[in-house]
Amino acid sequence: PKARKFQGWKGMSGKSDKKKSLVPRLRFPEFREAGAWEVKRLAEIGEIVTGTTPSTKKAEYYEDGIHLWVTPTDIGEEKDITETKIKLSEEGLQAGRFVSRNSLLVTCIASIGKNAILRMDGSCNQQINAITRFQGACVDFLYYLIERNTPVLLNTAGQGGMAILNKNDFSNLRFPFPALREQQKIAHCLSSLDEVIGLESHKLDALKNLKKGLMQKLFPQEVA
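Now predict its structure.
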């Protein structure tokens, strides 16, 4: 499960408030005097790569696959991707588009804005844009930033038909970024919350299963 989202940025009441609008409502004490966050395009903080689908007519691309190949169905509520339904062989990976580990994957066709971190070298299909080779950015922070700003991606993709956020528009999306150390602090805080939420969810599932088992034993079976 994902952590609760950030609160929005302070509103702007005029041009004089422009800089103030890039300061979050809540900030860790050591960064309160660090100044406003800097607006950057996604293309400035990493390389943007659009995935591909190796020819499905060539069985050798998929047989005995060992490399992760991510499609939107592999991106759910979990932040990290370490497994995929379909894998590529060595030949399949070479035919596709290589994406290095610790890249951020964002769906940009149909289900716009789903995102996750690829934790192993692999590839992805054409419905996903990957941000990789980061410069002054923390991938875990970027994960939460995209989650926080999913409506921005949806608005950019437009309405009607099948929504598509092409690579150029995706690359030019602009978001505020603090310095790397503050990014890492925010990411660590939200990741810790995700871990707690995950543990509590497992406990809840266990209690539900316990209840179900008890009900089956505490009531007699229906008479045929």
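Confidence is low (pLDDT under 50) at residues 1-20.
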